[in-house]
Each structure stands twice: as structure tokens, then as C-alpha cells.
Specification:
Helices cover 18% and strands 35% of the residues. With 773 residues, it is α+β, with helices and mostly antiparallel strands. It folds into four domains: 137 residues, Immunoglobulins (Immunoglobulin-like, Sandwich), CATH 2.60.40.10; 303 residues, Transglutaminase-like (Coagulation Factor XIII, Chain A, domain 2, Alpha-Beta Complex); 111 residues, Immunoglobulin-like, CATH 2.60.40; 93 residues, Immunoglobulins (Immunoglobulin-like, Sandwich), CATH 2.60.40.10. The strands form ten sheets. Strands 2, 4, 5, 8, 9 and 10 form a six-stranded mixed beta sheet that branches. A six-stranded antiparallel beta sheet has the order 19-18-17-15-22-23, with helices on both faces. A hairpin with a 6-residue loop joins β22 and β23. It is elongated.
Length: 773
């Protein structure tokens, strides 16, 4: 039966959508004739191109015709039906001081966007073309995220209008009506995909349907919700939520286990443009938005994307000591500048980062997205390169280190992150804090990322549980095994150390600037039966399970100690070596010592000095040896972090017992002193004095000082030129505070001869209105 072509008006029916037929767009004879005439008047080349190139002259598809039909239909009914229900405006009540953002704990974001948390209701006003009639009018909201929104994947959300809201579903209810305006209360799912949604409103009435135009200003930003009990990132302590979600300044620890240093870091997760930058990082990953509702997946994505190795992520790592093509890692004092630059240059990696910079950025991103997160430092942190779950040291026949075989390393410190979430993908009890590491060390499933790994699994040696718990276990609790080369080229185990890795695992305390030792969350107390069981259980899954044999008797022990807080940069380094003979017979030890300059990652740079000495120890005697390294020995060898390692190895002549230990230490650097001048008030100019004394008996060349402070001033760099030997300098910097409350001003110094110099000042800024009273 032929399809009859009728005008739209003849085919429209009140309260129904017209039947879609191709006949609607069939051409009349006059139209066909006119088109034929147009074609005939075209040049021969153009006629040939019309036939040969479907790109330039496409033939309409059935979908094109249907879409055109819908468009014509909506235009016709809007013209002909003045009683059609249409959306005229949407008010999301999105001001930082209004109900939605206050209740959703998003009022700190320096943005006028509508930012809310999932699993919680929000309010909105819709102004219609006429009063809403619940008995005849219908309305629903559409939220779409990603390039191909799909209802089944949770990236296209249809929110119906209901009489009464129920939990655990997307619904909206009219709670107030004022003539043409209706106020909706909208309920969201606690498992919703997080990100930026496009909002439209569709209305239906007996006169037809209409869909509002998408306005970018009405986009909805949905985040994880640690305040919602049904969200998998729920955290029940308000003090912990304030610290791990809302605090935008923190402390990062560095140094060695005996010389713990600290620096303040501006996380700045609420700074203007940071939320957009964090969502850009997610989008840049190329992962489908349908997976962005799972914090395990999101944390893993961020772990991969904060380094640039295989995905052009945020930061390019550099441990070479040469940073001429970018910014020295020690120069950064916050994440804001890094993320904004990455977003500004559309995903071009920022140069350069090292572990504390990677970790600082991860904390910013996860807190910004609503996942509780903290920055964690592990002192004496192993890097296991062969999945042995041991840290292996290879020596030659003379007990000298075989550098080409010693690929495992022990970092003086390593910084990563803990994030808080449930782990429904693991056995019960594995939720809570999860370790995530963005520093690119080893690949995980082909990508340079690490975690999230359950701290409970790490503590108990359950290294078979995902993700990457074996790698983190080795970092905090592996034994150090010494192997000696035999004459036939094979190796024999000659010594092991069991209390070397994972000391003073540190993070900022909740609600204060104190250091919180969380080692007990990562491992049982050293030497206890529980700790040994965890180590042996874990190593059954490693590549050197045979390394665990019955211990041999030992009657000579060796230990290295350091007085006080350790040596200062520019001075001599003094250590104490203690040898104890617990037997009733005399012992003679042939002791080898080697001191080397190390990158903080445990990678050897250069050997500074080697010594060999014979030490005679009487029965039951404890012998003390004083060891010293002069400034002249190390002054031209140092790299970032001023890290040094003393390696001692020896053999007891009488018993052939092998002694071995390593001791890492750093040379302490001075602080930048920051002194506020005058009263701090929003909108009024103030100043700070920054002073510094060069600790070295040499000139510092091309000194630069980096200054920044959230709510005080945007990041800026000051050129200080050269600073003479042991000389002191000071400078005054002016700025205008923009936000009230307690603030921190950070400064860091950088030059070729000296790094890791920084300072912080606490400044309380008064609101102008309060100060005027």
C-alpha cells in the first residue's frame, strides 16, 4: 500500500506523537522538476562530483529523515500550541552560601558551578511557560555524561517526577509551586557516576512535548560523598572528614628514619579551576565514564594518570639532577600550579616531579573528587624489582657490592597515598585505608600505576589480593638478604637483616600539625610472631621462597648510630659504629666501609670513600668506633635531598660469621624564615619578610625563591641572584589576601648548589567587614 504524503498539520494529533513515515518527506513533482533543472544548469564537473562524492553530496538516511521530522514536528506544535508546557529557565540554587552547596559540603569550591555529592537530595527551581498541572502535565529530568550517554551504563540518567521520594533511586518530587515556578527535590543514587553532567528537562502535556535547551551554566558536577552511609567512600568521623576531604593544606615528611624532615604542601583542591582540571585528568585517561562511579577504579586511574610514563599524564618524573628543561621537583610547594598548567596546555606533562610531588597531586585530585585521602611517607622503603618480596644485595668474593646486580634498592624515604573506601571486590575486612602510589616504579597489568592495595592485606602478608599488595608489602616489610658470589659464579646466602624496611611510616595527624606514626597499620610490631608469620606467608608467593632457612648462631653484632638530629649541610658528618662481642672468647673482625652519595630513591650515584680496618674485640666487650666524613669529601658529589649511605660489611676471622649493615643519613638544610609584616585583611595590601642564610662555604649561584599561599597570593618566582659564602639575605614581598581565615604562606629556594630549602608562615586573615567593626 503506497504511503500517503501529508503536511505536518494534517498529521498532528492532540496528545500523541505523529506516526513517523518516510512519505512525510517525499518530494512533490514540482520539487523534483526544480531539482532536475538545478542539476542540469550545473557544470559537468559539478555534476560528476555530485555522483562521485557522497561526502560532498550525501544522500539523506532514514535516521536523518526521522530526525528532521521530529524537528519539524516540535517547531509546528510550539507555534500552533500556545498551551504547550515549556521550560523557560532553571535555577539550581548553586551559590556557595545557599542550601544545596552548604548541605553537600561543597561550599569551599571557589567556583560558581553547581557542585553536589551523590546519594543526597538537592533542590532546584524550574520556571515554566504556564502553571504546572500535576493531573495532566508530565515532566522528567535528563542527565548525560560522556560522549555516548547510555541508560544501561548509568551515563544517561532519566529522573522521573514522583509523588514521594524513596532512597536508593533517582527521583524528583515537587515540594513547592509558585504560579509558573515549581521547586523540585531531587534524589540521587549513592553509586552514581561522578563527573560533569549535562542537564535538560523534558515536558509532556496533552498539547505535545518539549525539551529544554542544554545550557552549560546548568551543568551538574557530582562528586563522591564521604558523608553518605551508602557511598562506598563513607567515613563516619567528622574530624577525619575535615582532615582527609576538606583540609586544603597538609604536611609531607621526608629525610631518613633518624632525621625526619617536613614541608608544608598546598593541596588547593577547592581553588578556582582545580575541579575542572581533575575531571580533565579523568577524561584524558580515555577510560569510559561508566566506570567512574567505583572509587577503586577511579583511584587506580588517578594513580596511572598523575605520572606521564605511558599515558601523557600530569607529571614527568626526573631523578637525574638535571632539571634545566623544567622545574626542579624540590621547587614545587603545592599542586595547584601543576594541575592548572596541565589543564591549560591540554594534557602536556609538567616537568618535573618526584615521589612527594606525585603524592601531593594525588591527594589534591582524590580529595577534590570526594575520596578521603592522605599523603604517607615510608622511611627505609624497599623497591623490589623481581617480585621476590626480599631486598637482595649481591657481593663479590671480597664482599664488595656488585652494583650491576643490585637492582633492588632501598629509598631513604618514599611518599605515596592512602585513600579510604570499601572493597566489595575483596574478602570481608579488607576495606578502609588503601595504598595508592603514582610514582612510576614498576608496571601493574602493563601500566605504570600501583594500588589501591588494602592495608589490612599488606599487614597480614596476603599479597595475592589485588591491587599490587605484594609490591607495597615489600616496600614496608621485606627482609634484606645478602648474597656472596662463589668461585663458580653461583651465589650463596650469607646474611639477612630483618628489621630494616618500613620505619616511622608517617602522615599528618588529624586536626593538628603533628606527625602521626601509622606503621602499625602496615605491619605487626617488628620481631613478633605475627610479623614473622606475615613475612613468611608473603614470601611463599615470591620468587625466592628458598631464602628462608633456619637462623645460624651469631655472637658478634654491629650497629651504626647518629647523635642528635644529625649533621648539617656544610659541616662534617659524624657517626658511631658499635661492635659487640657476646661470646666468652676474643674476636677479630675485618671491617670494610664504603660511603656513597645516593639519590633518595636508593640509587647509587658515586662512592665518596672506602676504608678497611681490623678490629679486635675482647670477650663480652662492646667496642665503639668513631666514623667521620669531612665536607671536603662530599661537597662536589651531592644530589637532591643530600643523601648519603654508609655500607659496612665484614667477617669474623675465628668463626667466619658475616656482618653486614647499611645506614642512610642526610645533611640537614636550613629553613627559609618568613615573617609577616602588618595586619592581614581581605582586600588590603600586606607584606612578608623572607630571610635566609647560606650554610655553605661557597657561593650559591642563580638562586630562585618560589612563593605561594592559598587565599594569599598566586604562585610567583623571585630571582635572588647569587648569595655569598655563609652570607645572609632578606627580601620583602607584597600581596593582597583574597580569602579570610587561617592561611599558610609557603616559600621554597632552589639553586644548583642547594635544594630542599623551604619555609612556612601561618597568617590569619581577617574579613574586611569584621575588621571594620
Amino acid at each position: 500500500m503506497p504511503v500517503e504524503a501529508r503536511p505536518v498539520r494534517d498529521r498532528s494529533a492532540v496528545g500523541r506523537f505523529p506516526t513517523v513515515t518516510l512519505g512525510f518527506l517525499e518530494e512533490t513533482e514540482e520539487e523534483k522538476e526544480a531539482e532536475k533543472e538545478n542539476v542540469e544548469t550545473e557544470s559537468a564537473c559539478r555534476q560528476w562530483l555530485r555522483k562521485a562524492c557522497p561526502c560532498c553530496f550525501p544522500t539523506p538516511s532514514d535516521d536523518d529523515l526521522a530526525n528532521t521530522l521530529v524537528l519539524f514536528y516540535l517547531i509546528s506544535i510550539s507555534v500552533e500550541n500556545p498551551l504547550l508546557l515549556k521550560v523557560q529557565s532553571i535555577d539550581l540554587i548553586k551559590s556557595k552560601s545557599e542550601q544545596n552547596r552548604m548541605e553537600h559540603h561543597t561550599d569551599l569550591y571557589q567556583s560558581e558551578d553547581f557542585i553536589i555529592r551523590r546519594g543526597q537530595t538537592f533542590q532546584m527551581w524550574i520556571t515554566l511557560s504556564r502553571p504546572f498541572n500535576p493531573s495532566t502535565d508530565k515532566l522528567h529530568l535528563n542527565l548525560k555524561i560522556g560522549s555516548v550517554p547510555t541508560v544501561s551504563k548509568g551515563t544517561h540518567i532519566i529522573i522521573p517526577l514522583v509523588d514521594e521520594l524513596r532512597d536508593d533511586r533517582w527521583e524528583a518530587a515537587v515540594v513547592k509551586q509558585d504560579d509558573k515556578k515549581i521547586k523540585l527535590s531531587v534524589n540521587s543514587l549513592p553509586t552514581a557516576v561522578i563527573g560533569r553532567y549535562q542537564l535538560t528537562v523534558q515536558t509532556n502535556c496533552p498539547n505535545g512535548q518539549a525539551v529544554s535547551t542544554h545550557e552549560p551554566a546548568n551543568d551538574i558536577y557530582i562528586l563522591f560523598n564521604p558523608w553518605c552511609e551508602d557511598d562506598s567512600v563513607f567515613m563516619d568521623s567528622e574530624d577525619e572528614r575535615k582532615e582527609y576531604v576538606l583540609n586544603d593544606v597538609g604536611t609531607i615528611y621526608y629525610g631518613t628514619s633518624q632525621q625526619i624532615g617536613q614541608r608544608t604542601w598546598n593541596y588547593g583542591q577547592f581553588d578556582e579551576g582545580i575541579l575542572a582540571a581533575c575531571l580533565f585528568v579523568l577524561e584524558k585517561s580515555g577510560t569510559p565514564p561508566s566506570g567512574w562511579g567505583d572509587p577503586v577504579n577511579v583511584a587506580r586511574i588517578i594513580s596511572a594518570m598523575v605520572n606521564s610514563v605511558d599515558d601523557h599524564g600530569v607529571l614527568e618524573g626526573n631523578w637525574s639532577g638535571n632539571y634545566s628543561a623544567g622545574t626542579s621537583p624540590t621547587f614545587w610547594s603545592g599542586s595547584v600550579e601543576i594541575l592548572k598548567e596541565y589543564h591549560k596546555y591540554i594534557g602536556s606533562p609538567i616537568k618535573y616531579g618526584q615521589c612527594w610531588v606525585f603524592a601531593g597531586v594525588v591527594t589534591t585530585v582524590l580529595r577534590c573528587l570526594g575520596i578521603p585521602c592522605r599523603t604517607v611517607t615510608n622511611f627505609s622503603s624497599a623497591h623490589d624489582t623481581d617480585v621476590s618480596l626480599t631486598t637482595d644485595v649481591y657481593l663479590d668474593e671480597n664482599l664488595d657490592p656488585l652494583d650491576h646486580l643490585n637492582t633492588d634498592s632501598v629509598w631513604n624515604f618514599h611518599v605515596w597515598n592512602d585513600c579510604w573506601m570499601a572493597r566489595p571486590d575483596l574478602p570481608p575486612g579488607m576495606g578502609g585505608w588503601q595504598a595508592v602510589d603514582a610514582t612510576p616504579q614498576e608496571t601493574s597489568q602493563g601500566t605504570f600505576c600501583c594500588g589501591p592495595a588494602s592495608l589490612m592485606a599488606i599487614r597480614n602478608g596476603q599479597v595475592y589480593l589485588k591491587h599490587d599488595s605484594a609490591f607495597v608489602f615489600a616496600e614496608v616489610n621485606s627482609d634484606k638478604i645478602y648474597w656472596q658470589r662463589n668461585t663458580d659464579g653461583t651465589f650463596s646466602q650469607i646474611h639477612s637483616e630483618k628489621k630494616i624496611m618500613g620505619h616511622f611510616i608517617s602522615t599528618k595527624a588529624v586536626g593538628s600539625n603533628e606527625r602521626n606514626d601509622i606503621t602499625h597499620l602496615y605491619k605487626h610490631p617488628e620481631g613478633t610472631e605475627e610479623e614473622r608469620i606475615a613475612v613468611e606467608s608473603a614470601c611463599r608467593y615470591g620468587t625466592k621462597a628458598e631464602a628462608y632457612s633456619s637462623p645460624t648462631a651469631e655472637d658478634v653484632s654491629i650497629e651504626v648510630t647518629m647523635d642528635g638530629i644529625g649533621p648539617q649541610m656544610g659541616g662534617d658528618a659524624n657517626l658511631t659504629i658499635s661492635l659487640k662481642n657476646s661470646s666468652s672468647e676474643a674476636r677479630t673482625v675485618v671491617l670494610h666501609s664504603q660511603v656513597a652519595v645516593m639519590y633518595y630513591t636508593g640509587v647509587h650515584k658515586s662512592t665518596v670513600r672506602k676504608d678497611k680496618t681490623d678490629v679486635a674485640i675482647l670477650p663480652s666487650e662492646s667496642k665503639i668506633l668513631e666514623w667521620s666524613l669531612e665536607y671536603e669529601d662530599y661537597k662536589d658529589q651531592l644530589v637532591d635531598q643530600a643523601a648519603l649511605m654508609l655500607t659496612l660489611s665484614g667477617r669474623v676471622k675465628e668463626t667466619q660469621q658475616v656482618l653486614a649493615t647499611q645506614f642512610s643519613f642526610r645533611l640537614r638544610t636550613p629553613d627559609l624564615n618568613i615573617k609577616p609584616i602588618g595586619k592581614a585583611m581581605v582586600g588590603e595590601k600586606m607584606a612578608v619578610e623572607i630571610s635566609f642564610t647560606n650554610p655553605l662555604p661557597r657561593v650559591l649561584k642563580g638562586v630562585m625563591i618560589h612563593v605561594e599561599g592559598l587565599g594569599l597570593l598566586t604562585a610567583r618566582t623571585i630571582s635572588c641572584g647569587d648569595i655569598g659564602s655563609r652570607a645572609s639575605v632578606s627580601m620583602t614581598e607584597h600581596f593582597i589576601p583574597s580569602l579570610p581565615g587561617p592561611r599558610k604562606l609557603l616559600a621554597s629556594l632552589d639553586c644548583k648548589q642547594l635544594t630542599q630549602v623551604h619555609g612556612v608562615a601561618d597568617i590569619t586573615v581577617q574579613d574586611k567587614s569584621n575588621g571594620a567593626r
